Amino acid sequence: MKKKKNQNYSCVHAGELKDTVYGGATAPIYTSTTYDYRGPGTNLYPRYFNTPNQVALAQKMAVLENTESAMIFGSGMAAISAVFMAFLKNGDHIIMQRAIYGGTSHFAAAEFDRVGITYTMLEHINEDTLQESLQENTRMVYIETPSNPLLEVTDIEMVSAFAKANSLITAIDNTFASPINQNPADFGIDLIIHSATKYLGGHSDICAGTVSGSQKHMETLWNTAKNYGGSLSDVTVHLLERSIKTLGLRVKQQSKTALKLATFLERHPDLEKVNYPGLKTHPQYKIAKKQMYGFGGMMSFELKEHVDHNDFLEELKVIKPALSLAGVESTILSPAQTSHSLLTPEERAEQGITDRLLRFSVGIEELNILIDDIEQAIEKSRKR
Ligand SMILES: Cc1ncc(COP(=O)(O)O)c(C=O)c1O
Fold first, then answer.
1. Do 65 and 178 belong together in one domain?
2. How many Å apart are CA 6 and CA 321, to the nearest integer?
3. Does 165 share its domain with 300?
4. Does 336 sit in the ligand 1 pocket, CB within 6 Å?
5. N or C end: fewer C-beta atoms under 10 angstroms in the chain?
6. Which keywords has UniProt assigned to this entry (predicted)?
7. So what's the pLDDT on residue 85?
8. pLDDT (0 to 100) of residue 40
9. Pocket test for ligand 1, best of 197, 325, 339 (most atoms within 8 A of CB)
10. Torsion-angle region of residue 255: left (phi > 0), alpha (psi -120 to 50) or beta?
């Protein structure tokens, strides 16, 4: 497993906006939507992504993702859609991983056709499948790893090498790993996207997104993004900056607890299957170990037939059934009933998503609390 130094220092201090007037320990919040055009803030405007708090937070994200630059958006989807619309045009083709966030696949299905962009979704991403789907007009490869909800791991270095050899731009949704556990720029990925609504926000009360990359790529992104208007308000920028200060502490704790919990659940007699990249039995364990600093706080599992999964969700006392993920509180959901409910049972089965699959987001509660909650809920949900 790779090691990275001083992550907590970067979370707290990178891109710090200093209070030079009063010497306060935290950054002042500039909420103005209008500034004196004669300077010093020439052309500052929230939708131009260039107000003091936006710029400071973007610098923090650039440092955390080891890139030159970054931009902050009003949601993860605002970031993802801006990337597609800025780097693809009518007549282009994109290769995408199939196992990605449902909203992103929906964007491709609903929007690409209208603007004349074609796409190929790949079930398994490897050199052969990438080569087979390469077309003359292919411009981008888009991946998400670890994936939702099966925690499949894609080899970032391989994708990056393939893309470079074929002059393609690469984009990754790094939400599940967070910058604490994975820095795709180190492997040559061009655009690193986060739904900051998840780990970066971390308290289930902020909707935001980020993109990190080179200065040149951020200029291209900015040219399009300012037209779509998906910036984040400075008050929420402040909240996000405050949250990121504890990102390292939270994610390291969540990853530690998740590894122990996944190891416990894998041996549990009432569970069928546990998907977690940190388990040696995970099919891409070696790749995960190569490219991640920690295995993250997300996992999924199936209860055996003799445990009713709906009753199990009802009986949980601490772990909350909830749609989103990556907060300080542990949450759980049934992908078949939520994110993947629009697929037919056959389509779900094809992707390995059974009705009994549950996606679990490990919070910062102690391991014994989570184990006790799971055990008592299983006990009450056995089919008689
Ligand atoms: C992996 C992943 N990427 C992107 C998104 C979209 O982010 P947002 O809801 O902030 O627009 C989500 C939301 O659930 C997600 O889970």
1. yes
2. 34
3. no
4. no
5. C
6. Lyase, Membrane, Pyridoxal phosphate, Transmembrane, Transmembrane helix
7. 98
8. 76
9. 197
10. alpha
Say how many Å lie between the CA of residue 324 and the centre of ligand 1: 8
- Asked if 357 and 300 touch (Cβ cutoff 8 Å), the reply is yes
Same-domain check for residues 259 and 271: yes
Task: Check whether residue 240 and residue 253 sit in a common domain.
Answer: no
Residue 173, amino acid: D
Q: How far is the CA of 359 from the centre of ligand 1 (A)?
A: 15
58 and 174 co-located in one domain: yes
Query: Which residues are catalytically annotated?
Result: 47, 101, 173, 198
Quick one: CA dihedral 106, 109, 111, 112, positive or negative? positive
Tell me the residue range of the domain where 33 lies. 7-244
Give the atom of ligand 1 at the shortest distance from the alpha carbon of 104: 4
Q: Is residue 1 part of a domain?
A: no
- Domain-terminating residue out of 209, 244, 279: 244
CATH number reported for the structural domain that contains residue 366 in this entry: 3.90.1150.10
Q: Are 187 and 294 within one domain?
A: no
200 lines ligand 1 (CB under 6 A): no
Q: Same domain, yes or no, for 239 and 256?
A: no
Tell me the residue type at 194: H
Assess whether the C-beta atom of 195 lies below 6 angstroms from ligand 1.
Answer: yes
pLDDT tens per residue across all 384 residues of the chain: 677 889 999 999 999 999 999 999 999 999 999 998 887 777 899 999 999 999 999 999 999 999 999 999 999 999 999 999 999 999 999 999 998 988 899 899 999 999 999 999 999 899 999 999 999 999 999 999 999 999 999 999 999 999 999 999 999 999 999 999 999 999 999 999 999 999 999 999 999 999 999 999 999 999 999 999 999 999 999 999 999 999 999 999 999 999 999 999 999 999 999 999 999 999 999 999 999 999 999 999 999 999 999 999 999 999 999 998 999 999 999 998 988 887 778 878 888 889 999 999 999 999 999 999 999 999 999 987
- Count of structural domains within the chain: 2
Query: Is residue 20 one of the residues assigned to a domain?
Result: yes
Distance from residue 375's CA to the centre of ligand 1 (Å): 30
Residue nearest to atom 6 of ligand 1 (CA): 76
For residue 285, give the 3-state DSSP assignment: helix
- Does residue 210 contact residue 79 with C-beta atoms inside 8 Å? yes
Tokens of 18: 């200093």
Q: Does ligand 1 have an atom closer than 6 angstroms to the CB of 101?
A: yes
Q: Is 175 in the pocket of ligand 1 (CB under 6 A)?
A: yes
Q: 40: cis peptide before it, omega within 30°? A: yes
Contact 209 CB / ligand 1 (< 6 Å): yes
